[in-house]
Amino acid sequence: MTTTPKPEAASPAPPSIGTLRERYGPRYRWYLLLSVMVGVMASIMSSTIVNVAIPGMSHHFSLGQERAQWVSSGFMVAMTVSMLTTPWLLSRYGYRRTYVGTMALLLAGGIAGGLANNFSLVLLARVAEGLAAGVVQPIPAIIILRAFEPHEQGRASGIFGMGVVLAPAIGPSIGGVLVDLFGWRSIFFMVVPFCLASLWLAYRFVPTTAPGGVAATRGSGLDWRGLALGTVGTLCLLNGLVELRGDSPVQAGLLLAAAVLAFGAFVWWQRRHAAGGGEPLMNLALFQYRQFAMGSVVAFIYGTALFGSTYLLPVYMQVGLQLSASHVGTILLPAGIVLALTIAGVGRLADRQPTWMLVSIGLVLLAASFALMVVLQLDSALWLLVAFAIIGRIGLGFILPSLNLGSMRPLAKPLIPQGASAINFLRMLGGAAGVSLCAIVLEWRLAAHGDSLANAASSPARLAAFDEVFLMLAALCALAICAAWQLRQPDPQG
User: What is the full DSSP assignment across 184-237?
Assistant: First the structure.
């Protein structure tokens, strides 16, 4: 007897953003935002929380200050360069495969860093974490501008920002306690539960499609030449800044000149590649939008001040004020909570108020928080330090939800992924330079005051050196205010 084979059941189509929206209804866009928020929380935590462990790691591996700061700046270099690949990865592989791949790499980096037995492996793990963090961080801005209506974008940015800052706000407090109890290795393992949660959410809510709801397609290949030029420029810039504090000014000058040449060649190649029909890493047509161009200037300077201070503050508290790692986290905790609440409120304001005004207010408060640090002495009350940190975090709360929206709202929809990638690249390029710049200026001013971080006890001279670095950061914020003020003329929302 012949049996007629049953037709195989058709396998379900991969969930696109349209099918997921039909399945979960109007609330789906919030589920999608929550899913990517968890991953970004993990990536931001991995970039900031390690600063609490730098003194312990330096002691364990017998590192000097110039090598220890590469734990932060090496992460920043990898994160900065990999941001340029996000639009291509999303177009080639879609949201889900790109997001899952970055979370798996971040998870692997956290585990490898926690288990590493030499500094080279720690640095390699940090680079892997940076590559993953760089790819994932532009994705939320793309989703907010594509999945939400204009009158909801500020609210979505505020809620997203509030969730993202809560993890690094609580993280240093938990991290400081972990460092005191279990050592610096425990810091790396903190990203593991966030990565696991993000992978589960990705398979449930993140679509397989590329931006715009279209299917991922092979398209053109990655612009490897542009990526190489961007990487060389970033590395030469950072190494040139590091060499500035040494005894070889000629080598420093050569490296900085090479950075300028590499970035110039990058711009030239992006123009040529686009003219030849290729897909450039950075679409220079973005900068024909004046609002985006001015927002990029603000983002670069703001990144320099923000990430430079993120490196400097824990070192200042532990080495300058002689506080323990757990004290550092406890002091920063109230400021982090205030930041989260501020972002939620300012996000709603960004739907109604001119974004240039919100960004300018934030930069003024951030500059004030840096300038006020000069009043602190060894015997100052800790509540003053907490208050100054809160002022700075309120400033960040005004900037974070407003800058991306104000810069990218005028862009044509096809340019949104490129815009999110470019503005994050410039912000992180400033951040990578800011970490090195703070370390360089700190060592320079310590030497000028006849002190060094190797001394066991703090002194007024050491605090004076730190104060001068904080004043430099305040001046950078004042410079960014001038650029933010220029946003007001072309801002159609204002």
Answer: THHHHGGGHHHHHHHHHHHHHH--SSPTTSPPP---SPP-HHHHHHHHHHHHHH
Tokens of 336: 């982090």
Report yes or no: 110 and 193 within 8 Å, Cβ to Cβ.
Answer: no
Q: 147 φ, ψ to 5°?
A: -90, -15
DSSP 351: T
The residue count for the chain = 494
DSSP assignment letter at 139: H
Distance CA 103, CA 99 (A): 6
Cα–Cα distance list, 252 to 65, 81, 249, 434, 439 (Å): 18, 22, 5, 17, 15
User: Residue 476 corresponds to which amino acid?
Assistant: L
Q: Which runs of consecutive H residues, i.e. helices, occur in 449-459?
A: none
Residue 195 and residue 50: Cα distance in Å, rounded? 17
Helix, strand, coil % over all residues of the chain, rounded to 5: 80, 0, 20
**How far is C-alpha 275 from the chain's CA centre?**
31
CB-CB contact of 84 with 424 (8 Å): no
What one-letter code names the amino acid at 64? G
Phi, psi at 16, each rounded to 5°? -85, 175
- Name every residue whose Cβ is closer than 8 Å to that of residue 264 and which is 6 or more positions away in sequence: none
Listed residue (314, 69, 343, 36) closest to 194, CA to CA: 36
Burial of 256 (0-12, 13-18, 19+ CB in 10 A): middle
User: How crowded is the C-beta side of 393, counted as CA atoms within 13 Å?
Assistant: 27
Tokens representing residue 44 in the block: 């931001």
Query: Residue 253 is encoded by which pair of tokens?
Result: 């000058």
Q: Which two tokens stand for residue 438?
A: 């703070």
Percent of the chain with pLDDT over 90: 14
How many CB atoms are closer than 10 A to CB 218?
Answer: 8
- The CA distance from 107 to 116, in Å, is 14
Distance (Å, rounded) from C-alpha 297 to C-alpha 484?
A: 8
Q: How far is CA 465 from CA 203, 245, 479, in A?
A: 50, 15, 22
Query: Which residues have C-beta within 8 Å of that of residue 5, sequence separation ≥ 6?
Result: none
Name residue, tokens 């690094």.
168
Decide which of 267 and 68 is more confident: 267
* Assigned token pair, 443: 């060592």
pLDDT tens-digit map of 41-81: 888 877 767 767 777 777 777 666 566 667 777 787 888 88
Place of tokens 């983002």: 299
Q: What is the pTM of this model?
A: 0.78
